[in-house]
């Protein structure tokens, strides 16, 4: 009984409100904020107490984390402020790590405010929000933020732990000289399935298409995210997932309108639950739900289709008007300490770009190809781009949504 | 006008000034409320609707009509919303009128309890009540599961269909239809119906010629109260309809958040507001046509 409670509490603290779930409805957002506020609590007492009970149960890496971090020397540059203000996705960093950071640097106030989509973060900054030190946008949003002056250039001499970052996440289009962003977590867009509910396991986007129009008709869910849905037809046709070419998008349109009547739902928030309940057999989505809603689904599977897909990279950025820059630098370096970063991965189940942290990650998580795609799979992935300015995409997306009813 | 001051009689000027000041003070909160939360946003949306999308999304000042052209070229979500709101309003009327009539004329001593039962759901968040319908209509212990076991069908899918959306809409907005109807019917002079019957009208004739005209103001108010929010409905189709119906609310989300094209979204919003105002004005005019007196105003 008490063990059940313990497990439940642990799952509550470890389960994130769907990281990539864009809760669009104002009502939904309100509810999500309320739920997230309860769960995160910015280090307030209820959240802190559940995390305290979860911490000892977490992996060995977690308990080792604070001491290992203390052993690492950090180059002090100016006095570290007593406060740090972070604007981030809900439950995206380990509470144990927050406590360790506060203890190590004598931080008395660690403010953790949340947003549920990059668009909300952008809208807040465009609306003139100030007072935050650190935010965590997805990489393709960073160039725009830089252009609008929301982000400051990093002094890398103060971030020695950046040496731990896997080079394949460096020098990418969104920050060619690695001046502004620090890779945080990455994940892929792919196909989720339940083996007992479909006759064949999909290996490619073509298989996916056959299943949607055949055995999984009426049992397929797509996440409600324009950029991710376009990956399927474009990659299947052999084009770039970020294509804005008119002819290529026209071909993608044909595919999307073809499958639209076969879909059960377009849903970023509860698709994992629909899969877990057996309402859906197949979805186009992200890996997060595999360890969350579908944690107890034995026949689950995930594949990055053979034609390729996209990966997304969440990042750390230092905001232009950060009121506590020294504390922010301290945190940004601290979080990429190998043991601390390993605890992050164990906590949020997203891939870490930190090579030195990998050996310390829970072996089960490390061996999961959905979290850490093998090199040959990673080679098939493109970085996602911000294509929201393309009106042809928007038009197709709207047409697709209108066809969903059948 | 200055001369009228003397004509107002014994009230001294000081008192009138004070009462004027008091009126201003008391109306201030509502005035500021409407100014800040209604007029200002409307003005902003109107101005934005002529702009262009900034390079990184949002709004860049301009004076173009592209956004309106685009809004006119894509009437589908608007039409879908219109259809759904019309059917939803009729469904509310169909369910609500008999209920209101019963409450007003036949419920007797249970009236208070029944009205309380109608109000109680409002104590819970609309979102939570909508989520509850996921369980009620769902496959496990819900209606779909029940129908599966009764009919022996392989799979009964209710969630994600227009039926589920309609159930959610009627459920959510029914009280807004019932209460205005109830208020007008409750004040109805029952002897008028008796007189009508005495004069030879049948049940239907009495209803059509006496009850319905009396209930008309409530009917108009109720229909408008139900119709307007249904036109902008987003949550119910998204949750119970599994996002498979594309309505005006969805279109605005696409524009503002996914395409980050605020001007395009603003133009569509203005388009929606204008058409709604025209439609409702026409509806009110049509219904009230030929009525000599209006004892209960429309809204």
Compact overview of the structure:
Chain A has 406 residues and is α/β, with parallel strands linked by helices.
Describe the structure in your own words:
- The complex is a heterodimer of chains A (406) and B (299).
- Chain A contains 16 helices and 10 strands.
- Chain A has helices at residues 2-14, 26-40, 45-57, 60-71, 95-105, 118-126, 142-147, 205-213, 226-236, 246-259, 271-277, 325-334, 338-348, 363-366, 375-378, 391-403; strands at residues 83-89, 109-115, 134-135, 181-194, 220-222, 263-266, 282-286, 300-303, 309-318, 381-383.
- In chain A, β1, α5 (95-105) and β2 form a beta-alpha-beta unit.
- Chain A is globular.
- The relative contact order of chain A is 0.17.
- Chain B is mainly alpha-helical and 299 residues long.
- Chain B has 13 helices and no strands.
- Chain A binds chain B through residues 22, 24-25, 27-28, 30-31, 117, 119, 122-123, 126, 144, 147-148, 218, 224, 226, 263-267, 277-279, 388-389, 391, 394-395, 397-398, 401-402, 404-406, and chain B through 53, 55-58, 74, 76-77, 80, 125-127, 139-140, 157, 159-160, 162, 234-235, 238, 242-246, 250-251, 253-255, 257-261.
